[in-house]
Amino acid sequence: MDVNRTPVQPVTPQIAPVPPFPPPPTSVFCTIVPPHVLDKLAQSEDPAHHGPARLTLEHDALHRARRSDTAVRGITGPAPETASDKPHRTIYDAGHQQVVPGTKVHSESDPPAKDASVNRAQAGLGATFELYLKVYGRHSIDGKGLPLDATVHYGEKYDNAFWDGRRMVFGDGDNTIFLDFTIPVDVIGHELTHGVTQYTANLEYSGQSGALNESVSDVFGSLIKQYALGQSVGQADWLIGEGLLAPQVTGKALRSMKAPGTAYDDKTLGKDPQPATMKGYVETASDNGGVHVNSGIPNHAFYLAATALGGHAWERAGQIWYDVLTGGHLAKNAQFADFAALTVTAARARYGTGEEAEALLKAWSTVGVTAK
């Protein structure tokens, strides 16, 4: 596999009128920063912390209320009749307003932009497209060459990034706790993978199936970063959102797949609450049943399986996860044990009864999940 690829070149802004878009299909409103993190910041006495957090929470709650609890498959934009092996990317600028898509600032064939956020969004969309196509033979998010759209500079000090069922949307962050959300490529890969899930397993965004939905996005977000950098399992940092936290924050990232619960421990941000095993499973009514917290458990299972197999995580371990996500046997309300069992079945179907299946059985057992 060629890991010495020429980086995708982003593009220059060209201001053009944007045609009207039909309303997006009903889908889960998926954000990279979980509500519990923003809740903690909203309680701060410092206006620099609580102001952006409260506005972001209000925004996200409003948009979440407009979505149904279950993502649905649907056409999110015009797809070519014959899927291309090249991405079709368009970046828009919201101009610090809470509008989408915003003003079109570059297309696929444009040269690099002067705006770093535009360039990073362009490159992140390309890295995601490349991983799915070159490793798994998938043409874009829907498997049919869906054009990839993104909006940058969304809102004022908006502390999040999200997939809205049609496009990626990036806030600039408050520059006190969070930096620009286009910085980590795994954040872009994470959110776009919610779109892949939307078009495939369509996992319900609640409880364990919701935690699996979040975990699948973390898994492939991490793989997109590892693939882009040509990293082995030992070289990867296994962090989600590394580079997103401002320098004054005591933390490395939003989440750690290698060691859930250790990504940050900050006086303002609080401590990373993710459990690594079922012993720490959190029963809560918040965040659709703790989908961003309990996702640490399947995240850690993937890390354990991938490191046991060695080499590049996008190969055997990633292939098994992709087979389960797209194989048609994963129920919308699947629990951890259901997903675990399907990974073992998928490993045996693709690789036989060798080390892959054994690595999975051991990984799931270590996190306290029994494959049914």
From TrEMBL:
EC number of this enzyme: 3.4.24.-
Xref: Gene3D superfamilies: 3.10.170.10, Neutral Protease Domain 2 (1.10.390.10)
CDD domains for the chain: M4_TLP
Pfam families: Peptidase_M4, Peptidase_M4_C
UniProt GO molecular function: hydrolase activity
Cofactor(s) listed: Zn(2+)
Alphabetical UniProt keywords: Hydrolase, Metal-binding, Metalloprotease, Protease, Secreted, Zinc
Annotated spans, Disordered: 68-89
Chain ranges of the Peptidase M4 C-terminal domain: 201-369
Residues annotated as domain Peptidase M4: 89-198
Subcellular localization, as worded in the UniProt entry: Secreted
Source domain of life: Bacteria
The family this protein is said to belong to: Belongs to the peptidase M4 family.
Functional description taken from the UniProt entry: Extracellular zinc metalloprotease.
Name the UniProt record assigns to this protein: Neutral metalloproteinase
